[in-house]
Amino acid sequence: MTVIKINAISVPAESGDELARRFAARAGAVDNTDGFEGFELLKPTDERTTWLVVTRWRDEASFEAWLHSPAFLHGHRSVAGHGSGPHHGPVGVSSELWSYEIAGGSAG
Length: 108
Description:
29% strand; alpha+beta; four-stranded antiparallel beta sheet; globular
């Protein structure tokens, strides 16, 4: 059964473009992970400053295996001292991980 993991990241309004840039730089990094089904980065289009990182996984075990993998650690290490942009270190000021499973919908 597909599980959905949503990382809700609160980002200062002036840092949203940096968050998007960082995700774009790592595009595809998780694509070949066993059990990974898809990913979207959702940018708020209103006054909110919370961005959503939505991932879909075959099952909870696949997500947990990735979470404890060297690939996860590499992708989520501190970027302090790296890069040439104005932001070093974390862009978000807080984050929350939400977990869901698909309970209904349509084929689209």
